[in-house]
Amino acid sequence: MDVCQHLDLEKYPLDQDDSATLKSLIEEGRSQLRTSGVFLLPGFLREDSVRRCAEQLSTIAKQESFVHSREHNIYFDDRYDDVEADHPALTRMHTRSLTICADQIPTSLLVKLYRWQPIIRFIAAVVGKNRLYPMDDPLACLNIKSFREGDETNWHFDRAEFTVTLMIQKPKIGGIFQTRHELRSNTNPNYEAVAKLLQGCDKQVRSFQIEPSTLTIFRGKNTAHRVSAVAGNRMRIVAVLSYFDSPNVRFTDSDRIQFYGRSQPQIT
User: Which of 67, 131, 176, 222 suits a disulfide with 228, CB 3.0-4.6 Å?
Assistant: First the structure.
């Protein structure tokens, strides 16, 4: 499968390292990540390609996905001894979505795109890394997250320094990506400001209705974010592409069981 035929390489010439347009995109991405933590590239996939992906993934999501459901606080961590357990910053919330792993869609365009070197070099340049590597994990490297009516990803901070997603299908109602840029730092959990966010009193929250075929690069480690609850009978489907600045990164078996309900890849 030739990845190039599925991308808008006139708008996003990732395969042309010396392109002035590409260099401008990289600079724009760096600027957007500094100021808002979010860099959107709408129309990244061609319409017919994203439509075929949506048709394939909708069927798999309904029949073969793992229901990931959990209670959590915004930090995804219960080990906070320097604040009262009932502090509003530690409010418990619910998250639920469906997950498809890369080993379930081995021939998909998305798997080919994930390992396509031009996109890896582009993302590395935007996030300021000398080099990035795909995960050496057959389950976690590429995930497809689907949201049915009532599903949502509640407020949280990411463990990873940055996240890359590709919107495949948007729902009829809801599924809004919301962010609060740099709400905490690596050394300061900022409990009072986090409490203000969770109480609905933070006026710096931004909302993004992300259209299908949009590639998003996002710094979510210190920027709080969520996907609001979906309504209607059309699922929200998004691919999550995970890269790291060192090779051979894998989840532990316990991580895989928590996120995917299994520790080993499917036997094909």
Answer: 176
What is the distance between the alpha carbons of residues 199 and 188, in angstroms, rounded to a whole number? 20
For 68, the 3-state DSSP assignment is: strand
Handedness of CA 79, 80, 85, 90 (dihedral sign): negative
CB 149 within 8 A of CB 233: yes
State how far the Cα of 9 lies from the Cα of 22, in Å rounded to an integer.
10
pLDDT band at 268 (very low <50, low <70, confident <90, very high): low
User: Two tokens at 172?
Assistant: 């009829």
Segment 220-241, tens digit of pLDDT: 999 999 999 999 999 999 999 9
Q: What is the DSSP letter of 5?
A: G
54-91: burial string, b at 16+ Cβ within 10 Å, e else? bebbbebbeeebbebeeeebbbeeeeeeeeeeeeebbe
pLDDT digits (tens, 9 = 90+) for 124-153: 999 999 999 999 999 999 999 999 999 999
At residue 2, the 3 state secondary structure works out as coil
Q: What backbone phi and psi angles, to 5 degrees, belong to 236? A: -90, 125
